[in-house]
Amino acid sequence: MIFSFNMEDASQVFVGAFALAVPVSFSEEAWRLGETLPFSNILMLLTLSVLFLGFFAYQSVFEKDIRSRRVMFAFRIVVDYFLAALVVALVLLCLDKLPLIDDPVTSVKRIIVIAMPASMGAIVVDSFDKE
């Protein structure tokens, strides 16, 4: 099993996440969803994001062969989502729409709402360079 995640992979994830995080982060609807959606819906969005990342990674990045690379498969999903969420947080911070100190719950909810499309962009660009 080859366990690799390098700066090229990280840069692909950052670019893919940024490509979709920016337009969604500028949307007032996304900010309001982060404020108004119940936490159960936020958890459903997070779950859907991870499931779709897993499905796409299984089909495209790992080409349906994870038998000997299950750890790398799970690692890739977690890292891709985390890096996408980090990009979303940085964009929201730049837009002054991430009230971490005043309202951390809203901040996390906004990150999860916007990380859904951003993480898909991240995994798609990451898939350009197959495992």
Tell me what you see in this structure.
The N and C termini lie close together (11 Å). The chain is mostly helical and 131 residues long. Helices cover 76% and strands 0% of the residues. It contains five helices and no strands.
Label this structure with key terms.
131 residues, 5 helices, single chain, globular, mainly alpha
Overall pLDDT, averaged?
87
The low-confidence runs, each spanning 5 or more residues with pLDDT under 50, are none
Order of helices and strands: HHHHH
**Fraction of helical residues:** over 70%
Tell me the number of helical segments per DSSP (H or I, 4 or more residues long).
5
Report the biggest beta sheet as strand number plus sense, adding barrel if it closes. none
Radius of gyration: 15 Å
**Which structural class best describes the helix and strand composition?**
mainly alpha
Question: Count the strands?
Answer: 0
End-to-end Cα distance: 11 Å
Beta-strand percent range: under 5%
Shape: globular
Brief characterization of the structure:
This protein has 131 residues and is mainly α.
Element layout with pairings:
Layout: H1 7-25, H2 28-36, H3 39-61, H4 70-94, H5 104-126
Helix pairs in contact: 1-4, 1-5, 2-5, 3-4, 3-5, 4-5
